[in-house]
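Researcher: I'd like a structural prediction for the single chain below. Treat it as a standalone chain; there are no partners to consider.
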Amino acid sequence: DPMLIITNCTRDMGFLIADKSMHRPVVGTLARGLQSIPVHRPQDSAKLGSGTIKLEDTLVLGNQTKFKSEFEVGDSLCVAGSSDARRINEIVSDVKLIIDSPFEHKRDNQVSYKILKKVDHSTMYN
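Model: Treating it as a single chain, here is the predicted structure.
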């Protein structure tokens, strides 16, 4: 798509690309040649959280977790093995937090999770 747009548009433009992709050998070289604009995404710096969690609707119960030190309100939580993420609305304690909406697939067992820190894109889009 970018090549089609570039060849038919007379204006200068740059396309957004994940910052992580800018560091890939072929893709990064092509993106720099097209003057693409790198954008940092939360999933690019996701890290595994301590302990395991159990999901109960919008309540997340932790086992050996450190929610207060690992999360801030506005960060997101992603269940390992899934690409769905939910925003943290409230951190009740190190073992209990509230997410904005329940995950679609109910899990009755303890699962690992990833921490996606909130990224402020206001400078990019203002």
